[in-house]
Amino acid sequence: MPARPVTIETLQLIAAVRDMLAEHLGADATVDERQLFGSHAFMVNGKLCLAVKDEDLLVRLPPSEHEAAAERPGVRELDPRGGMPGYFWVEPAGYATRAQWQWWITSALAYNPQAKASPRRAKARAAPATTAPQE
pTM above the 0.90 mark? Predict the structure, then answer.
């Protein structure tokens, strides 16, 4: 099945996140961009920090601030069952003002140095080559 086309709004949001990361981090940080769970993820120093999916912004905050962040307008938990504390989807209404936008980005970046990196998964090993029996 072919990939869904990316909308102008999504591209603009990705560019805005990219600009904010460059503004706040400068050249010292390592920022990798990759597709992750159907979103455009920004990995800062090897850890998921922010992501964009359609017009929603994924932010990673300290798990200890989960309850307070969940009360903010335009926010929904990544995992409604509570399995991923600190991860939130922020809808456009939640980052519509400059102050809201700045808060989400700076909060995610402030937590990034303390965030734990996910362990790398081992790639599936290739099946061992078989040899023909010797006669």
Answer: no
